[in-house]
Amino acid sequence: MTERRITWLLIAAMASSCLLKGSLAGHTDYCQLCDDDVTHIACGNDGSFSDECPSNAKLLTIEEDEQQAIVAAHNEVRQQWAQGNGHVKVKACRMATVEWDAELAKLAELNVKQCVMEHDDCHSTDRFINSGQNLFITGFSGMGAPDMSTLLRSAVEEWALEGKDVKAGYLAKYPDNYNGPTIGHFTMVVHERSIAVGCAASNFDEDGFNTFLVACNYATTNFIGWPVYSACHKAGEHCKAGKNPNYPALCSTSESVDYNFNDQGI
């Protein structure tokens, strides 16, 4: 049967503004992590699917090899841009390598259990107090559907396409009052301080389409006025713990990164 693929992207990536306030008995009290007027996605959430979801909604398992597939997809885009081979020929001084984070992934599950492509207001953790988020949704007619690795890579590829609209100035300083083509998903993928990603996916029928919703949560987010990544003459020249042998334009996974922007007072 002929398949028809429809893809929607949310216009902008979420800039989460949660602030760490404390934890209880060694376990994170998510209700205490955000600003007083913001509710954390996990606060009072029992992990059930939303009542608004179709009856056939299900959470998809992301196996370890599939986790590594989406991590690799991120690092491949980061490597491309960090070495100066992106749309903008700017090499990165100190871009971190992304690794999988189970807690970010668990919180992403709560997002996709809403069955709508909508950012939650706060999904930060004790460790990552300014967590960012990218969303992706795609639908298929007929019986066709992608395997998990293909689905996750498709999400990253879609976000990375926004790089065609990025300028060097945007990388040097994330723009304020920006009203051009969407770039926020891309800048989330290549943010120099992002050391971690955790993703989740759900599947349900919507308007006759076999629909897949993906959410990825990140170690950090885009901050207006601060670099997406800083430019250097040589890729990785400011890495302090060496470079990643698999992604030589990225810093080693041992690199100490201030992903919470403590050095900037954010």
TrEMBL record:
Keywords: Secreted, Signal. It is found in: Secreted. InterPro entries: CAP_dom (IPR014044), CAP_sf (IPR035940), CRISP-related (IPR001283), P14a_insect (IPR034763). It holds the Pfam family CAP. Belongs to the CRISP family. Residues 65-225 form the SCP domain. Residues 1-25 form the signal peptide. The keyword Chaperone does not apply. CDD domains: CAP_euk (cd05380). Coiled coil: none annotated. This is Venom allergen 5. GO terms for cellular component: extracellular region. PANTHER family: CYSTEINE-RICH SECRETORY PROTEIN-RELATED. Its main location: secreted. It comes from the Eukaryota.
